[in-house]
């Protein structure tokens, strides 16, 4: 007979097992940070090693007894595993240690549930939680296997387990419909930005790399930023005006983590679409983190899963204020394009370098030349000023106005169409298809 579940507590026994031959190793330090971020109080940390997980308990019988003893001695109400457990393993361990057991996926879901702020974010988290819980109903309590009885409860012949499963599936279907509506609304916004030729720059990176702090430093917004894992869940978009570039839309997105549960990737599809359809990704990396190389690879793994690996990326090594004598700098590739930028979002050092790098990566379509305008073309002069395209002006001996012009091709395309101009005047007549787009 199963024991009754106790009310949830925050004092926890942490379990981490090393599998030497596995490529899916977890980081014990990151595990502790996850627990603290969830509001947990790590009471005991139990480590161990195995060649393969035990099919019934994940850990061996001896280690299981050690966990049970730690639960009793520490007064913990919860056992957390830094691994993914099957529903049957979770049940078997609970039955032995007589307290709640939660795996890494359940822990991350709990953090997400705490952090979600917007209606969309809460729907996404609820969807992931329901999908996670649906696999665990099978191993539920004994009362779920009984048919309902009593006055007003007789008739359908359903067990409580079947009823719960049916209601849960109905809720999942309802959330899918509502998220589909949100996705359609987001797609409309993206199409509007595409029509206006406004490029999108999306911040991606490992959780707690400083994306929101960088977002605030660039846009002067007040997005919630904290030194904790998954401080940001809900996407935030702001318009950012960059010198010599014009306006771009900057998107702050959810942080990634190693072995991010696939259900979360699916649930946050609408959010991650901002990344999948960006013109440039700013991959924010914690330069002071000793695991930054591994974290970078994990981010690239998630980018591949959502189909964003081929989008141009600019690496932003953040938190240089935590390094010794390191100044902001742009590093370039063999073609001279910015490849990575070293900055500190906390102190604001290097923000101008990021804007310069974005301009060079997205602004390679900039036209720079001198234009001679007749006195009768004052309207064109005014239009060029509206696009902030005039760097300076002078007059020649014939009274013509000489303008030093620097303008993006997307703005030039609008200007040419609106004023019926000849692209040849700007030296781009060979790119006829561009202006017919």
Automatic annotation (TrEMBL):
Q: Which GO terms describe its molecular function?
A: GTP binding; GTPase activity; guanosine tetraphosphate binding; metal ion binding; ribosome binding
Location in the cell reads:
Cytoplasm
Q: Which cofactor does it need?
A: Mg(2+)
Record has Secreted as a keyword: no
Signal sequence region? none
Statement: the UniProt record of this protein carries the keyword Cytoplasm: yes
For this protein, the record's InterPro entries field holds: EFG_III/V, G_HFLX_dom, GTP-bd, GTP-bd_M, GTPase_HflX, GTPase_HflX_N, GTPase_HflX_N_sf, P-loop_NTPase
Q: Which GO terms describe its cellular component?
A: cytoplasm
Tell me the ranges covered by the Hflx-type G domain, including all copies: 199-366
Supply the alphabetized keyword list: Cytoplasm, GTP-binding, Magnesium, Metal-binding, Nucleotide-binding
Give the domain of life.
Bacteria
Q: Where does GTP bind?
A: 205-212, 230-234, 252-255, 318-321, 344-346
Q: Where does Mg(2+) bind?
A: 212, 232
Gene3D superfamilies xref list: 6.10.250.2860, GTPase HflX, N-terminal domain, P-loop containing nucleotide triphosphate hydrolases
Task: Please give the subunit comment from the record.
Answer: Monomer. Associates with the 50S ribosomal subunit.
HAMAP family for the chain: GTPase_HflX
Regarding protein family, the annotation reads: Belongs to the TRAFAC class OBG-HflX-like GTPase superfamily. HflX GTPase family.
Biological role stated in the UniProt entry: GTPase that associates with the 50S ribosomal subunit and may have a role during protein synthesis or ribosome biogenesis.
The name this protein goes by in its record = GTPase HflX
The organism's lineage is: Bacteria, Pseudomonadati, Pseudomonadota, Gammaproteobacteria, Oceanospirillales
């Amino acid at each position: 007979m199963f024991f009754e579940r106790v009310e949830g507590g925050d004092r926890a026994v942490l379990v981490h097992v090393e599998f030497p031959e596995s490529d899916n190793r977890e980081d014990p330090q990151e595990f502790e940070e996850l627990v603290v971020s969830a509001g947990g109080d790590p009471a005991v940390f139990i480590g161990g090693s195995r060649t393969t997980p035990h099919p019934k308990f994940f850990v061996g019988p001896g280690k299981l007894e050690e966990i049970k003893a730690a639960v009793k001695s520490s007064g913990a109400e919860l056992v957390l595993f830094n691994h993914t457990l099957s529903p049957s393993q979770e049940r078997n361990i609970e039955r032995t240690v007589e307290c709640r057991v939660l795996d890494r996926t359940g822990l991350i879901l709990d953090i997400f549930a705490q952090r979600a702020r917007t209606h969309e974010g809460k729907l996404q988290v609820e969807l992931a939680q329901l999908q996670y819980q649906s696999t665990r109903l099978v191993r539920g309590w004994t009362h779920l296997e009984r048919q309902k009885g009593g006055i007003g409860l007789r008739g359908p012949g359903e067990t409580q387990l079947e009823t719960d499963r049916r209601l849960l599936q109905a809720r999942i279907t309802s959330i899918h419909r509502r998220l589909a509506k949100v996705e359609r609304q987001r797609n409309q916004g993206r199409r509007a930005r595409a029509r206006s030729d406004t490029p999108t720059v999306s911040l991606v990176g490992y959780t707690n790399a400083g994306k929101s702090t960088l977002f605030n430093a660039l846009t002067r917004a007040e997005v919630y930023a904290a030194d904790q894992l998954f401080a940001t869940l809900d996407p935030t978009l702001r318009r950012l005006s960059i010198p010599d570039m014009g306006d771009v839309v900057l998107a702050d997105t959810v942080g990634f983590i190693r072995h991010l549960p696939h259900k979360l990737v699916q649930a946050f599809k609408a959010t991650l679409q901002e990344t999948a359809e960006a013109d440039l990704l700013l991959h924010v990396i914690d330069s002071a983190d000793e695991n930054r190389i591994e974290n970078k690879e994990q981010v690239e793994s998630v980018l591949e899963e959502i189909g964003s690996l081929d989008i141009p990326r600019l690496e932003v090594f953040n938190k240089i204020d935590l390094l010794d004598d390191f100044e902001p700098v742009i590093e370039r590739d063999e073609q001279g394009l910015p490849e990575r930028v070293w900055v500190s979002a906390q102190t604001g050092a290097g923000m101008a370098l990021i804007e310069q790098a974005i301009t060079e990566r997205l602004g390679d379509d900039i036209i720079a030349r001198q234009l001679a305008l007749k006195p009768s073309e004052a309207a064109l002069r005014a239009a060029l000023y509206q696009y902030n395209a005039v760097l300076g002006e002078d007059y020649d001996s014939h009274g013509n106005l000489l303008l030093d012009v620097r303008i993006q091709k997307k703005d030039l395309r609008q200007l040419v169409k609106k004023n019926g101009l000849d692209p040849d005047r700007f030296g781009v007549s060979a790119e006829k298809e561009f202006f017919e787009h």
